[in-house]
């Protein structure tokens, strides 16, 4: 049996969630997210972000969340700005473009966007009304390269968006890992204060399925529920999502699971660094991208699953390793043993 570092979906869900689903299985509840578990989970999220005026919507997955949020916010002639590695550009089968909204791509070395990256895009789209209008800035935390936004960076980006009449949307599929990074100075409350919309990713952090969309900007809250229903995302048995988020949010389980995943990744990262291995990006979350020779990659692939992310040259490639809430010491130690055996 191979150990998987391939993605966050190699695991099931945390036992607390299975137990809660079983315990409450025969309890009759209202449908469409009006069950007591969903309502309690939403209240708990509002408490954690310190914003009782926010609106919370539970949906099943990240692509679904991105599609619904972006298509709901933008008018037909408006577009979204994203870093080139952005999930909406590379891993969602053109879902955003399929709604009629162009995605403007910006190349950045670390997968993050800064005001200086966006300025040229705005300057190159002033031929009104002949070009699409940039209106929404899409970011991820952590990013698709495992990097994170520090508080100052998000503050500067948020201020820039407000000054330029842009909405700021944070993809939070791995938000727990971003916030619990050892170098992070962001809090969930600060994320809520600095973004118009973000979501808490459950699927990648202990849930079976589920993302919690949090709309902080009251302008964007009106009629948003219609978009959920129209896009087929309003679960009749919404309790499935509510129970999971209630378990994840209470007693800080969500953050504990993310911290564990990060720590396991850092064990591997530190072991590789001691052997002089370079990385595609300097990350402190549950995603790492070591650059290894093809021979070592072949040896590792005999016992571990992972993605070969990017070819560097004929002999070297960057691989992506992802640790999860359930990554055990055995998998990590076995990987480190191979590294120490094969690298001088």
**Total count of strands:** 13
Helical amount:
40-55%
Structural class: alpha/beta
H/I helix tally: 15
Question: What topology emerges from the helices and strands here?
Answer:
Layout: E1 3-4, H1 15-23, H2 36-49, E2 55-59, H3 62-73, E3 78-83, H4 87-90, H5 95-98, E4 103-106, H6 115-123, E5 133-140, H7 151-163, E6 167-171, H8 175-179, H9 188-194, E7 197-201, E8 211-215, H10 218-221, H11 224-230, H12 239-249, H13 253-274, E9 287-288, E10 291-293, H14 294-300, E11 304-305, E12 307-311, E13 316-322, H15 329-342
Parallel strand pairs: 1-11, 3-4, 3-5, 5-6, 6-7
Antiparallel strand pairs: 2-8, 7-8, 9-13, 10-13, 12-13
Helix pairs in contact: 1-12, 2-12, 13-15
Kindly describe this structure.
- The chain is α/β, with parallel strands linked by helices.
- Helix content is about 40%, strand content about 15%.
- It has 15 helices and 13 strands.
- The protein has helices at about 15-25, 35-50, 60-75, 85-90, 95-100, 115-125, 150-165, 175-180, 190-195, 220, 225-230, 240-250, 255-275, 295-300, 330-340, and strands at about 5, 55-60, 80-85, 105, 135-140, 165-170, 195-200, 210-215, 285-290, 290-295, 305, 305-310, 315-320.
- Strands 2-8-7-6-5-3-4 form a seven-stranded mixed beta sheet, sandwiched between helices. Strands 9, 10, 12 and 13 form a four-stranded antiparallel beta sheet that branches. It has a two-stranded parallel sheet with strand order 1-11.
- Helix 7 links the parallel strand 5 (about 135-140) and strand 6.
- Helix 13 (about 255-275) packs parallel to helix 15 (about 330-340).
- The chain is globular and about 60 Å long.
- The two termini are about 25 Å apart.
């Amino acid at each position: 049996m191979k150990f998987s570092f391939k993605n966050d979906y190699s695991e099931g869900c945390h036992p607390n969630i299975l137990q809660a689903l079983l315990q409450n299985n025969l309890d009759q509840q209202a449908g469409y997210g009006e069950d007591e578990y969903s309502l309690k989970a939403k209240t708990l999220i509002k408490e954690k972000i310190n914003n009782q005026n926010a609106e919370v919507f539970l949906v099943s997955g990240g692509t679904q969340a991105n599609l619904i949020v972006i298509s709901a916010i933008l008018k037909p002639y408006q577009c979204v700005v994203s870093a080139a590695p952005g999930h909406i550009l590379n891993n969602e089968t053109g879902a955003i473009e399929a709604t009629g909204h162009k995605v403007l791509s910006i190349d950045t070395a670390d997968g993050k966007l800064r005001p200086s990256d966006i300025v040229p895009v705005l300057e190159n789209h002033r031929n009104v009304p002949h070009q699409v209008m940039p209106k929404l800035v899409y970011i991820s935390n952590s990013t698709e390269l495992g990097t994170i936004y520090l508080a100052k960076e998000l503050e500067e980006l948020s201020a820039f968006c407000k000054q330029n009449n842009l909405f700021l949307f944070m993809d939070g599929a791995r938000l727990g890992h971003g916030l619990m990074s050892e170098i992070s100075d962001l809090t969930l409350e600060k994320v809520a204060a600095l973004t118009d919309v973000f979501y808490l990713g459950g699927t990648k952090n202990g849930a079976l399925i589920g993302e919690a969309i949090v709309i902080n900007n009251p302008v964007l809250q009106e009629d948003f529920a219609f978009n959920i229903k129209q896009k087929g995302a309003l679960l009749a048995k919404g309790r499935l999502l509510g129970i999971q988020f209630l378990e994840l949010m209470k007693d800080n389980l969500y953050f504990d699971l993310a911290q564990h995943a990060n720590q396991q990744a850092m064990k591997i990262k530190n072991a590789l660094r001691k052997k002089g291995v370079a990385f595609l990006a300097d990350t402190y979350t549950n995603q790492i991208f070591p650059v290894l020779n093809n021979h070592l990659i072949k040896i590792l692939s005999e016992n571990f699953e992972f993605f070969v992310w990017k070819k560097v040259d004929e002999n070297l490639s960057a691989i992506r390793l992802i640790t999860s809430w359930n990554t055990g010491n055995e998998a990590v130690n076995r990987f480190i043993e191979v590294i120490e055996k094969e690298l001088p």
